[in-house]
Specification:
It is built from 3 helices and 13 strands. It is mainly beta. It has a single domain, classed as Ribonuclease Z/Hydroxyacylglutathione hydrolase-like (Metallo-beta-lactamase, Chain A, 4-Layer Sandwich). The strands form 2 sheets. It has a 7-stranded mixed beta sheet with strand order 6-7-8-9-10-11-13. Strands 5-4-3-2-1-12 form a 6-stranded mixed beta sheet, with no helix packed on it. Helix 2 runs parallel beside helix 3. The longest helix has 10 residues. The protein is globular, with a radius of gyration of 16 Å.
């Protein structure tokens, strides 16, 4: 599995021939978007910063679009979406927390989560989390301290922070790393990982460098 970061909450996840786009940034957003072909595109919140489905189209490759709670199976990828809350864009909105399971690796995307708690129904449906993507920048999403507290409570093997820097508190990443006792972590260009690489990891923080 190869995970690449395109800023804000936008990630490209590639596993073999399967490509998943998570929260692709729309051309209507004030943030820079990246275009590539995907098989599946997920959006956690109906906002130009997260719903650029056309940016996940290239040539004959048209993604299966998922934009809300429910259970889905596409090309042996199992996806579950759970409704939660967000205050992104200065007004209450429905945010979808997604779990994505493929080849024995379970990913959890918190999206534009603004509450430091998830419902009991969501927690029960998450299963074991291998890799957790958590927003940390404040301003409509979790701030660093609440983000870290929620992240460790879910007991993931790896935590990937997102939504920080120019899109929120410029000190958010520094504060988040301090919460996790990881002041000196260097960002990776991308994360290449296999199931066996997760053995022995408990809440390890991984920083991905934005490629845009």
């Amino acid at each position: 599995m190869i995970i690449s970061y395109y800023g804000l909450q936008s990630f490209k996840i590639q596993f073999g021939d399967i490509v998943i786009a998570y929260n692709p940034i729309s051309k209507d957003s004030t943030f820079k978007s990246t275009k590539y072909g995907a098989d599946i595109a997920l959006s956690s919140l109906n906002h130009p910063d997260f719903n650029g489905f056309d940016m996940a189209e290239r040539g004959d490759r048209m993604p299966f679009v998922i934009s809300g709670p429910g259970e889905y199976e596409i090309k042996e990828v199992f996806i579950k979406g759970f409704a939660s809350t967000s205050e992104y864009g200065d007004k209450p909105a429905i945010n979808t927390v997604y779990t994505v399971a493929l080849e024995g690796i379970n990913l959890c995307f918190l999206g534009a989560q603004s509450s430091g708690e998830l419902s009991n129904e969501t927690i029960e449906g998450l299963d074991t989390i291998d890799i957790l993507f958590v927003p940390i920048g404040g301003e409509g999403v979790l701030d660093s301290a609440r983000a870290y507290k929620l992240a460790v409570s879910l007991e993931p093997k790896i935590i990937i922070p997102m939504h920080y820097g120019d899109v929120g508190n410029p000190q958010a990443l520094k504060i988040f790393l301090k919460e996790g006792g990881e002041d000196s972590l260097e960002p990776l260009e991308k994360l290449t990982i296999k199931k066996k690489d997760l053995e022995g990891k408990e809440g390890n923080i991984v920083i991905l460098k934005s490629t845009v």
